[in-house]
Amino acid sequence: MSFWLFGLLCLYGLSAAGLALSAVTEDETPPADATRQVGVLLERMAEALRSLNYEGILVYLHENRLETLSLLHHVEQGRVQERLISLSGPVRAVARERDRVLCALPDGHPLSVERHGGGHILATDGIDPALLGDHYRAGILGTARIAGRDTDVVGIIPRDRLRYGYRFHIDRETALPLKSDLIDEDQEPLEQLMFTSIVFNASDGVTPALVGQPVRNAPVTESTSRWRFNDPPKGFQLVMHHEIKQPDGSAAEQFLFTDRLSAYSIYVEDGAQEGLDGLANIGAVHAVGRKIDGHRVTVIGEVPTATVEAAIAGVRLAP
Questions:
Q1: pLDDT band with cut points at 50, 70 and 90 for residue 41
Q2: Distance (Å, rounded) from C-alpha 81 to C-alpha 99?
Q3: Model pTM?
């Protein structure tokens, strides 16, 4: 789970019309040079998110709710500090420093978890448009002005209703994404995150080292578990499997699937009596849970309902 997704789940609880796609139409395959141009922009954007010092005010629009957030990203001697604070509603905050993520919930109880990998609040690492052609259309949509700054607009549009896409407004000077829309197949925004003001601070020039491999370009793997996943949603492949130690001493298994942009996880708990039964969602994050062969199975990801339902339908326990 990305830090940004984890942050939103913490902030909002767990237990602007878009541009028309003009560069790439539904039945067209973008030319190689256009794909490379998009790839260069996305690579610059990911590097800017990691290395720049910036702070600003954002608005987050989801499910007809408008939230105001304060974001700080600071890099010193290659170490990243991030802070995301809700400025509207109950006091809620997410912070990251070194290998920990701290979430302050509305009830005042802090939640601290280990951070694996190099994810940050606006995680875009590993997006490679050359690998997305079977399930997405990528193109440069034009230009726009966000927070008083000129941006180039890049779209990654899903080809079907099993996944979401993105529209990034990338600052021409710094390559930082000043606006990010999560979009469906019709390019309708499901969630929007936009800077209304931003300040760039001086940097010491020491870029944080990349930690681990982005999930989006992790190699396909095979699980040695007894669990089988028949007919996963089209395009999604298993790239990670590990065990998670529970507070009561029991172990759960996590299986992570991705189509190189979107992702979902399948969690399996031994004999768990309590948990999600049926469907649930927080904004664009959907989950489904049920008991299978005496185990609690939960599928969760920033993917449509049809995707998590198809994923759990194929879960089987081998004899």
A1: very high
A2: 10
A3: 0.83
